[in-house]
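**Protein of interest**
===
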Amino acid sequence: QVQLVESGGGLVQAGESLRISCTVTGHTFSRYSMAWFRQPPGRQRLLIAHINWSGTDTRYADSVKGRFTISRDNARNTVYLQMNDLKPEDTAVYYCNSDGTPEVWGPGTQVTVSS
């Protein structure tokens, strides 16, 4: 059974940085691309970053490009999202997702950015 567990969220001030993590169990992590999504309060969940199985190709939504970096450690079955220069509009619940099991979601981690 595939499980995804996000961690590392919190409350920060605008301009600060935060790194969140997602650990995957139950499938061969290194075979699949991974992605980060976020869901602001009262809004739909949107894709913000994607990384291929080897970590050599990354893609970003325009809203986070240049500020966020997605990376992965296949030995640890973990994908990361480094978030710099955070803005209040980055406030959301952040979720990771595997291309191998796109229907499976973790509980998410809350990121709140105060102005």
